[in-house]
């Protein structure tokens, strides 16, 4: 699956090269690449053939996911009003509040993941936030706009990204869980 998503991410590269100042292309690339990042971590953790190499691959997956979260921040920042329009109107205190709050949350999560400070807490909250996006925005969307392909596609993509965030959360939990000998795992180092 990681190779398939790498192919999908690569399809955005010509658009990025053609219009590098249009952030939507970059955002689309990083949305797909976040799934590649999760796949790298799963591959590395499930393959015991070369532990040192697998530790490096898992770390590359983790760092690349953190970079993807930076992209999620920028994408929301550049499209704050568009993001606000997705927030259900019935959620207080208002659509723009949640657009700004989730943008800040993405930024804080990226900082935590890439710095390693509060990374486990950040990964848990990030996963919960993305799952909530699905429950509050993307699951209802196909019912409201069943003939619009974006309603279905964004729903699937949101939950796939939530899956990658969950993989990162599990990866970090493995990193700090005690081994049978009582020492700490060192997947991040």
Tally of structural domains: 1
Please give the largest β-sheet: none
- Please report the total strand number as a whole number: 0
Intertermini distance: 26 Å
Describe it for me?
This protein has 189 residues and is mainly alpha-helical. It has one domain (2-176). The protein has 9 helices and no strands. The longest helix is centred in the middle third of the chain and has 28 residues, at 51-78. The protein is globular, with a radius of gyration of 17 Å.
Write the layout of secondary structure elements.
Blueprint: H1 2-10, H2 13-18, H3 23-46, H4 51-78, H5 80-86, H6 95-115, H7 119-138, H8 141-144, H9 149-176
Helix pairs in contact: 1-3, 3-4, 3-9, 4-6, 5-6, 6-7, 7-9
Give the structure's gist in a few sentences.
By secondary structure, the protein is an all-alpha fold.
Supply database-style keywords.
189 residues, 78% helix, mainly alpha
């Amino acid at each position: 699956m990681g190779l398939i998503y790498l192919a999908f991410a690569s399809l955005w590269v010509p658009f990025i090269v053609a219009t590098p100042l249009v952030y939507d292309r970059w955002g689309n690339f990083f949305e797909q690449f976040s799934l590649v990042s999760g796949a790298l971590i799963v591959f590395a953790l499930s393959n015991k053939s070369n532990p040192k190499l697998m530790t490096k691959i898992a770390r590359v997956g983790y760092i690349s996911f953190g970079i993807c979260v930076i992209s999620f921040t920028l994408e929301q920042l550049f499209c704050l009003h568009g993001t606000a329009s997705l927030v259900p109107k019935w959620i207080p205190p208002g659509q723009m509040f949640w657009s700004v709050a989730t943008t800040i949350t993405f930024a804080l999560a990226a900082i935590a993941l890439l710095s390693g400070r509060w990374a486990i807490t950040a990964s848990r909250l990030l996963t919960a936030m993305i799952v909530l996006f699905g429950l509050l925005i993307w699951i209802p969307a196909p019912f409201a706009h069943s003939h619009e392909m974006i309603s279905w596609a964004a729903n699937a993509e949101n939950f796939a990204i939530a899956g990658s965030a969950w993989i990162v959360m599990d990866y970090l939990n493995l990193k700090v869980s005690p081994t049978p000998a009582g020492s700490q795992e060192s997947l991040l180092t």
